[in-house]
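Risk register update: the risk of archive-format incompatibility is retired. Evidence:
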Amino acid sequence: MAVEVTWWGHATCTVQDSGVRVLTDPLFVRRLAHLRRRRGAVPPPAAARAEVVLISHLHSDHLHLPSLARLAPGTRLVVPAGAGRAVPGLRRLAAAGGLRVTEVAAGDEVKVEELVVRAVPARHDGRRLPVGPHRSPALGYVIAGEARTYFAGDTGLFDGMARAVGEVDVALLPVGGWGPFLGHGHLDAGRAARALAELAPRAAVPVHYGTYWPIGLDGVRPHEFHAPGDEFVRHAARLAPGVAVHRLGHGESVRPEVSG
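Archived output:
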């Protein structure tokens, strides 16, 4: 098999292709502000091992400095353009931890050993805080090696999405969130299935659901926490029946069939 995907919870995945480990949006904590991890253990130390780490946008559940502090010196960190200016702590962490930071915009490519990582557009609020200037774009990434794997980060549907992303074999799509309501710039299970039909990969893994939930809201529409993965599988079977959907548990891996 050309690629192996491990889902650690939320938007954190390891994609292993051509002997290179790629880690997405690492979040390695039991609690983040008002969010509590309600399912799955905090990923083990081995989860932080990667040759390259991809950050989709600056929200603190995607660019989480204490989690990035677990990376080994020399790790390549790919972040949206302007991230270093918008998040001064990132510059300090990179200097102290020996991380090699590369800022990218949509269309830029970064070569990491046998892989080429291409940044693609996303429709999402990329700011570090809920208020303030838009200094950095939200991005997705296509990881090209033996397979082409699309990590969408956080995004809504947008015109030209399939054209911007290009042909891919595996799609890692967000299907939920961390609260009972999703705002603009997000995919829920139904919209993610529509994106899947447009992208037409061979395989997909739903992510960004069923991990973190606001403290004190356990009884508020709890199906919004538990259900998005199964709902995505159901919608995908109707809208994109030719795509093999792999609904993983936390810490589980899959080697999707991408050839033939």
